[in-house]
Amino acid sequence: MPSTGIVILGAGGFGREVLWLVRELSALRAEPGWTIVGFLDDDPAKIGSILCGIPVLGRTNSIREGEPRVYSCICGQGNPSVKRKLVNATRDYAKDFPVVVHPSVKRSEFVSIGRGSILTANCILTTQVSLGEFVTVNLGCTIGHDVSIGDYVTLAPGVHVSGYVRIGQSAKVGTGAVLLPGVAIGCNTVVGAGAVVTKDLPDGVVAVGVPARVIRECGQHATGQNE
User: Fold this and answer.
1) What pLDDT does residue 31 have?
2) Who's near 33: CB < 8 A, 6+ residues apart?
3) What structural domains does the chain harbor?
């Protein structure tokens, strides 16, 4: 099998977790053709350094300097708006954006996962679950039946999503938050860590507490278009 060069977009904390995930998949031969080439990161202080044994090759746009569509890109960034920017910076030059799923993830055959999405260790997805593109499901999340999650959404560690929940694109749900059955989370909305969402939340707000209440607008409203 020919090797596929993997570049991780972002060399921060989550990017290094993604590196660990890719290494585990390769070690278990779940993705035996993957070879990690390095990180791309826009922080000048990181360029040229070695992180976890892998070089930071250059800025995100440096992929343009090589032959187009040589590397597969995995987005190692949890912030939804930054994820979108990194993907837009590389989409015309990346070979593809593979789905990355940790071997410990449990899911039924009735789970659909969009390109570029990442499911980390010990997550459970039940049935009739739809994940959009570039969704991040972090450590130990559970997602119940009949759930729809939009593009670029990030679930932080330990989030519990009940049945019939809808999460709009580019929303971010904080560590340990709980979404009760049937609620809808608006696009670009942020749910704080430990919050319990008992009713629908509109687009572009920050909600915290038990039960979750809106404390402010976050200044971002989804348009359905790429930034």
Assistant:
1) 57
2) 1, 2, 3, 4
3) 4-90 (3.40.50.20), 100-211 (2.160.10.10)
Tell me the backbone φ, ψ of residue 206, rounded to 5 degrees. -110, 130
| 23 SS3 class | helix
| pTM of this structure | 0.90
DSSP 201: B
For residue 130, the cross-strand partners are 112, 148
Q: What is the largest CA-CA distance in the chain?
A: 53
DSSP 15-76: HHHHHHHHHHHHHTTSSTTEEEEEEE-S-TTTTT-EETTEEEEE-GGGGGGS-TT-SEEEE-
3-state secondary structure of 186: coil
Residue ranges in the chain assigned as alpha helix (H): 13-27, 80-90
Q: Does residue 211 have a cis peptide bond before it, meaning omega lies within 30 degrees of 0? A: yes
In the chain, the N- to C-terminal Cα span, in Å, equals: 37
Q: What is the mean pLDDT of residues 160-188?
A: 98
Q: How far is it, in rounded angstroms, from Cα 9 to Cα 216?
A: 31
Encode pLDDT of 35-74 as tens digits: 888 999 999 999 999 999 999 988 887 766 555 567 889 9
pLDDT recorded at residue 221: 44
Q: How many residues does the chain have?
A: 227
For 134, the token pair is 């570039």
